[in-house]
Structure prediction request, 618 residues.
Amino acid sequence: MKLQSSTKHLLGTASVLAMLASAVATPANAAATKGIYFGGSTLASEAFRAIFDCYMGATVGATGWTDGFQFGVTPLPATCTNSTSNTVITLGVQGMYAGVGSGNGVRGYIANDPKQWYGGSITPSQTFTLTNSASTTVQPPFPAVQPPFADTLNTTFGAYPYPRVDAGLSDSPLPATLAAMTTTSITFNTVTWTPPATVTASGSSVVSYTTTVTYGTPIQIPAFAVNVAIPVNTAGLTVNSAIAQGTINPTSPPWDQNNQGAAIQLSEAQLCAIFSGKVTNWNSTANIPFIDSTGAASTRPFYYTNVGNGIGTAAQYTTASLPITVVYRSDGSGTSFILTNYLKAVCPQIDASYATIFGATNLPSTNFSALIANIANAGITGSWVGVSGSGNVQSAVGVTSTQGGRIGYLSSDFVKPYAIAAQAPSAAAVQNEQQRAAGVELPITTATTSPTFIAATPAAAELAWQDGRLQAPNASSTWNDYNVYGYVFPSGTPIQGGVTVDGKSVLPLTNVAGAYPLGGTAFLDLYSCYSVAADSARVTNLKTFLSWYFQDAANNALATQIIQASGFQPLKDTIKAVIRTKYLGTVNATRINGAPPSGPGGSTAGGCNGVTGGAGAL
Prediction:
């Protein structure tokens, strides 16, 4: 759903630094006097920026999220509403989102320090002088891109760093215990963000989530079900299994497989061969490890799935040399976590040679460098391309002939048909485990517009979450119980497609028909107790937004459209109901609350029971 034709939409890039000093007009909601401050996952960034605009009832017109969709039909309403009653929200609260990646999102959350929401990476004891000159080469750290759309017009909230942390977002889970909830926090001596800006980092220290006496109990809840797509630049390839994209109608979800397209259709065996470096060129005729529906091991030529659309005989993707260049996230990324969680579950069952690469204890990881270290072959990985942020992965895979042969991984909102940026690539449809176990090894060989393998659609994300072996949260669930990746097949699980899956992550190996296997969520990391010393309405504003966001589907149709237009899927109403009751009600002992008790709006009840401080006393 992204529009990247102007600098304000280029996430995580240096070209936007000139914008950071200020904005030029009044807020879209002129009554806005307080902010809600989120930061982290770039996967979730575009969706949440549009959701915040929707929540404000912002009339954003030609410069807002309504022009961010490729539908060829009437766009979503320019004025968003809070319910099916079409009442425009005028709460005077503006949501802000710093898209800095999951790693930095968690860093800021654990440290309770919005200065940790910087883009890129930083080495302590470095000093950078940043200017607004277009010719200046800017090194990290730089602030997150000023949130686009209505937010860019707000002089009150447009400055960085944000004044506080209300929620961190990450596509990877928090540690399972408080003792493990630590991060490396950068110490900033000089932070003058207004261009010309000077940022001095003097060192770093290990900080931990300050016990429940200060912040209350951590809260980790999923925001929506997400897919990680596999973008492929097929320039220079002959792909017999390619499927043209149809027209998507944003007013008629769910969007099915037939209108998603597929730049290429790839099997489990092919993905494992590519991301292990076992195959490095699209013209390869090498045999790769393969297992059939009974779990029997054999091999197939790398190009064995290159059939379809009336072509029944597999052919090489190209007879000329065309390197397979993997584009990966060089920063801490929850998208990397979802990909490596998939590879760890799927690949070792295909061949024992994958065990040391994907089955190692350092995976899954938010750092793709862990996988590169496991491959331990610089001759292979040295040609791979590492970039920071989803927008840069999108651009690096690209669509031009000079980028032909590149493959990466991105959330579905950064690939076609959900992204309309000129550099947005199309994605692969991928074989899921249910298909392998059912003997579906190849794309359809008759002439058809329907892919055999599964595209990264909202409906496919929903199906993955319908696997009965994923435990639904209940009133007694802790933050770790919401970790959808942490649910594994129990001991004694029946063999699935000839393979023993005991102890493996459920999501990548789901046997639900039609489920997309590279899935997960963007977690909202919240505190149960917030400082209200500087803003007595802080908790009220945050909870009012969350209560609106987690309404059941019938009362939040426009937010649902925004989420699905990103290729994601809202949570089921049953999960939303548990979240509302447990954290957003008025009587539950676990509800989010404000402290200190002596301050305005403070309380000793709910999540502030026994708390003496409160998160965000900045």
